[in-house]
Design brief:
It is a single chain. The chain is α+β, with helices and mostly antiparallel strands. It is 24% helix and 28% strand. It has an eight-stranded antiparallel beta sheet with strand order 3-2-1-15-14-13-12-11, with helices on both faces. It has an eight-stranded antiparallel barrel with strand order 16-17-18-19-20-21-22-23. A hairpin with a 2-residue loop joins β12 and β13. The longest helix is centred in the middle third of the chain and has 22 residues, at 368-389. The radius of gyration is 30 Å and the shape is elongated.
């Protein structure tokens, strides 16, 4: 323990924590308490690495997840303070390269909307989660994120907006988000044990970082889930920090930007982050029904609520097996931060703070941990029984509509990227980001993975075109079903070049085939707009205007095109190639521009 606990009467807090760690089967937990401008304590309990019995210390680096958001909001606020951004003008006035789903959002969304979760756009977390997308790639994908509520009508939590704000900070300041936060916040605050990714923590010279452990879902045995790969989340949730550093952060926040006698953050910036926005559900009242924390309102990067009649500001952070809560009472200037290892212990990030505040305020104490432990045990037993009772609801006696090879391919979504389906001839396998799992036939054209503890359960339904081709794959991601469209196999450029020329229809009409600089094949009928042919497979193409029409080029032995077959559900025709050039009258219409 570090600090001076005599400045705050915590009673039997040490015994309370020992009991809590035992009863909850906690791998490790850290607690920081500050009052006024002083550190009362920074103390670890249990282990940062339970498998090797390595203790949780005040210097242990811990992923604070969404508690990163206030760092980003403050960084953006510094640019507002300097007149480089505005909280309340449309953000595209300053950053025209940012595009939203439609023109109404383009014209109206502000920085305050983005930082206050007021855009009406759902999470879309699977865009960034374990992806290889660059910061700019993610920024550019904002335009594919469809809103589900009108702007400013209700709070919908959105990590991608914070990621976008991080890129905006770089565009405006000329520094990457990490560098700007380091130069403007961490260094002035003396936060030397705060890093930007879990990978940075693992490379730390001291080797003192927390490892993820949780109870197994059907037993009390500890297991180690995969370490977080959340670097892409950056401004929304990638920071790792020690209890000691978070204590300094809390002191600065409680004292309106002042620490060690220096004003390191303008008071106006911090007050802006507390300005009330939209209502935010509070876990204790809205989830558990305890009327202890009420009237949650989100600002920017943090929320305010009433804790037993006292103003509380806080924010939580969650990654698999890592849970944090950073909070303080502004009027009393008491701050508590809690780091918890273990998903089964997640409620403790709130409960420990509530216990400390009750002690510090001289209020009648409530045994939060006992109340919540009962909830947790019942929930675990309920879910275990539910899994045991679960039976497949598949329609019996069904078969896939195609052979397995017909499902194999790459499928694309404008926001989420690529989903790959492969087969060894006996089973399908899907790969999405770091998840690679076998698929088992469920019914019709639906295939499922097993419901395992690491990856959960995935279901993919394949869809067919009007012509019976497997051309789409639907999978539930985030809040809705996402439809991935099969990526066509595009012939090489030299093959496409040999398709150019003039073809003659059975009625003697000459039709031109042209290759554009972008590599698109276009079909020209004299006097008609061009029809761009979309690659399908091999030398087969589909009409852009009439997808039910297929065109297939037939090659000579030397690889040159000799004919163009054209068919739909009712007719099949073959147009011989009669010239390497394109008829002039086929290029004298507006179709050339379309190509």
């Amino acid at each position: 323990m570090s600090g001076d606990s005599s400045k705050l009467d915590l009673g039997d807090f040490e015994r309370y924590m020992e009991t809590l760690v035992r009863d909850w089967h906690v791998p490790g937990v850290g607690v920081s308490i500050v009052r006024d401008s002083e550190v009362v304590m920074t103390q670890g309990y249990g282990y940062r690495d339970v498998a090797n019995a390595l203790p949780f210390t005040s210097s242990t680096l811990f992923p604070i997840a969404s508690n990163t958001k206030l760092f980003t909001a403050v960084a953006a606020g510094l640019l507002v303070e300097r007149g480089l951004l505005s909280f309340d003008e449309p953000i595209r006035n300053a950053v025209p390269s940012l595009r939203f789903y439609d023109q109404s959002l383009d014209a109206a969304v502000t920085l305050r909307d983005m930082l206050g979760h007021k855009t009406g756009v759902p999470r879309y977390d699977m865009i960034w989660y374990e992806s290889d997308y660059s910061t700019k790639d993610l920024f550019d994908r904002i335009r594919f994120m469809k809103p589900i509520a009108p702007l400013r009508s209700r709070l919908i939590y959105n990590n991608m907006m914070y990621k976008a704000v991080g890129h905006i900070i770089e565009l405006i300041s000329g520094k990457p988000w990490q560098q700007f936060v380091s130069d403007e916040i961490l260094v002035p605050l003396g936060m030397h044990r705060t890093l930007f990714t879990y990978g940075d923590a693992k490379a730390d010279d001291q080797g003192d970082y927390a490892l993820p452990f949780s109870e197994r879902r059907d037993s009390n045995e500890f297991w180690q889930p995969p370490a977080p790969k959340h670097d892409e989340c950056g401004p929304a949730g990638s920071i790792v920090a020690s209890l000691e550093d978070i204590a300094r952060w809390s002191i600065m926040l409680m004292n309106n930007g002042l620490i060690d006698g220096k004003q390191v953050i303008p008071e106006s910036v911090l007050k802006a982050t507390l300005a009330p926005g939209l209502p935010w559900p509070t876990e204790m009242s809205d989830v558990y029904g305890f009327k202890t924390e009420l009237n949650g309102i989100y600002g920017m990067g943090r929320m305010t609520a009433a804790f037993r009649g006292h103003l509380l500001t806080s924010h939580g952070g969650t990654l698999r097996a890592f849970h944090s809560q950073v909070s303080y009472l502004p009027e009393e200037k008491i701050g508590v931060s809690v780091f918890v290892i273990g998903d089964h212990c997640a409620p403790l990030s709130n409960a420990i703070g509530f216990d400390i505040y009750s002690r510090a305020l001289g209020l009648k104490e409530t045994d939060w941990t006992a109340r919540l432990l009962d909830f947790r045990r019942k929930a675990k037993a309920t879910m275990r029984d539910a899994r045991e009772r679960a039976v497949p609801r598949a329609v019996p006696n069904t078969q896939p509509s195609h052979g397995l090879a017909d499902y194999a391919g790459s499928y694309e979504h404008p926001a989420y990227g690529t989903l790959d389906i492969t087969t060894d001839g006996t089973q399908l396998q899907f790969a999405f980001r770091q998840v690679k799992l076998p698929l088992n036939h469920f019914h019709y054209d639906r295939f499922d993975t097993a419901n395992d503890e690491t990856n959960g359960a995935w279901s993919i339904s394949f869809l067919t075109s009007m012509l019976g081709d497997v051309d789409r794959a639907a999978i539930r991601l985030d809040e809705a079903e996402a439809v991935f469209v099969r990526r066509p196999t595009r012939p090489d450029a030299d093959v496409l070049a040999r398709l150019v020329g003039t073809y003659e229809t059975p009625l003697g009409r000459k039709v031109g085939v042209k290759l554009s600089r972008d590599g698109d094949i276009s079909l020209f009928h004299p006097g008609e707009p061009a029809d761009i042919l979309k690659p399908f497979k091999g030398l087969q193409f589909r009409s852009s205007d009439f997808p039910s029409i297929t065109f297939e080029f037939v090659l000579e032995e030397d690889g040159r095109a000799k004919a163009l077959r054209h068919w739909n559900a009712h007719v099949e025709l073959e147009w011989p190639r009669i010239d390497d050039s394109i008829p002039a009258d086929a290029l004298e219409d507006g179709g050339l521009v379309k190509s």
